[in-house]
């Protein structure tokens, strides 16, 4: 198949694209490199030079007229209506949008634009190609939940005027738009609500829990915990998530599906585990809790298990061990 992946330089996208290319698919990646890593693109190009193409562009700019006016974009993204229709995309994985609060809060309007304007461009592109599109939604659509664990039927508790709202409400609008395109345009849409995911190739400066803890521990610094550390998260290894995304894409399921781990830990417990695994002499320091930080977060994944036959396989110890090894390799390469 010929497949488009947005947010292609991100860590989840890297693992997804790599799995697709290994199976012989042809992939075009798009990323504006706002939060992606250059080496992800470089490594994919090096290993799969005849199967992988990359466009450095912001999806907010990829309106149909703009694609037609740009020769590079047109050659890789334009839909064909004649014998060249074999060049059309059959699948679109729409992963573009920073998921790290410190990054998406730097330019909240751009984040909201990416979720709405950029997503609309991707829906239009998928429709032109008659392709199925999977959108990477998020557990943040549930806000600071009053139902735990969170099933897909829960409508959420989101602050519309908070510092996280550009992302939370942006993703909710993206889901709404997908529903409209499916209902009124007949587009095949799959919606993945992704919970905390971790693994190799995460950016060490993306500001998320495990990257912070591992980076601090490897640097011999105290681990920073916000609030009292009793807020909870579940952590899904990236290979499990990619398997879930691909199963969802090829399924007949049109309703949103939670993808995440059932193993829930407090933030303090995670900090203590990382200290134990890397350097037991390290200490933990506490900082004020950011506004609207969810108190609990764990998915009800019964729908994924029933409809996709999906559940996580990689244990926290195995997954974090691989992530620590990856971060150590990165440090050695830079050092």
Could you describe the 3D structure shown?
Helix 6 runs parallel beside helix 7 (165-185). The protein has 12 helices and 13 strands. The protein has 335 residues and is of the alpha/beta class. The chain has a single domain, classed as Rossmann fold, CATH 3.40.50. It is globular, with a radius of gyration of 20 Å. A 7-stranded parallel beta sheet has the order 3-2-1-4-5-6-11, sandwiched between helices. It has a two-stranded parallel sheet with strand order 7-10. Strands 8-13 form a two-stranded parallel sheet. The protein has helices spanning 11-22, 38-47, 64-69, 71-77, 101-104, 108-129, 165-185, 209-218, 238-249, 267-278, 302-308, 316-334; strands spanning 2-6, 26-31, 52-56, 91-94, 132-138, 189-194, 197-198, 223-226, 232-234, 236-237, 257-259, 264-266, 284-287.
The main sheet comes to: 7 strands, parallel
| CATH top-level class | Alpha Beta
Give the ordered list of helices and strands: EHEHEHHEHHEHEEHEEEHEEHEHH
The CATH topology name reads Rossmann fold
Strand content: 15-25%
Give the domain tally. Answer: 1
Q: Calculate the mean pLDDT score and round it.
A: 94
Distance between the termini: 40 Å
How would the global form be characterised?
Answer: globular
Classify the helix fraction into a percent range.
Answer: 40-55%
Please give the number of β-strands.
Answer: 13
Query: Uncertain segments of ≥5 residues (pLDDT<50)?
Result: none
Strand order of the largest sheet: 3-2-1-4-5-6-11
Q: How large is the radius of gyration?
A: 20 Å
The CATH homologous superfamily is called NAD(P)-binding Rossmann-like Domain
Please identify, by name, the CATH architecture. Answer: 3-Layer(aba) Sandwich
Please identify the structural class as seen in this structure.
Answer: alpha/beta
- Quickly count the helices: 12
